[in-house]
Design goal:
119 residues; mainly alpha; 3 helices
C-alpha cells in the first residue's frame, strides 16, 4: 500500500511538471503573439518576415542573470522566470518575435533579464 501511494505521488508530480511546462509554453506563445505588431524598418533592424536574432550556441556562464521569479506576483510570470532561470542556454537559442532587438536584445533570454517579458 505504501509503495502504491509513493508511485501515485510520483505520477502526480510528473503530471504537475508537464502541466507547468505546457502552461509556460502557452504563456510565452500568447505574450509573443500579442506583442507582435506591424513594424517598419525604423523600429527594428530585422527585415519584415526575417527571423529576429538569437544565440547559436550560448554557454550559460556567459549569459546575463535573469530576474528573480520572486520579483513578481503574477503566477504565470513567476513560472516563466523560474523556468527561464533553469534553462537559460535553451531560451537564448530562441528568437524573440516582439522585435525587442531594437532595444538591444539578442535573443528571447534578454527579455527575462529585466521585467520586459512580464509586461
Amino acid at each position: 500500500m505504501n509503495q502504491r501511494r509513493k508511485e501515485a505521488l510520483r505520477r502526480k508530480r510528473r503530471i504537475r511538471r508537464i502541466l507547468a511546462l505546457s502552461s509556460l509554453a502557452v504563456v510565452v506563445g500568447i505574450v509573443t503573439y500579442s506583442s507582435v505588431a506591424p513594424q517598419g524598418p525604423a523600429r527594428s533592424h530585422v527585415a519584415p518576415g526575417a527571423t529576429p536574432p538569437y544565440e547559436v550556441s550560448p554557454e550559460a556562464a556567459s549569459l546575463p542573470t535573469t530576474m528573480s521569479p520572486e520579483s513578481f506576483t503574477d503566477p504565470a510570470a513567476i513560472a516563466a522566470y523560474r523556468i527561464v532561470g533553469e534553462i537559460p542556454e535553451v531560451v537564448a537559442q530562441q528568437p524573440c518575435y516582439c522585435r525587442c532587438d531594437r532595444l538591444g536584445h539578442g535573443s528571447l533570454h534578454d527579455c527575462y533579464v529585466t521585467d520586459h517579458a512580464a509586461t
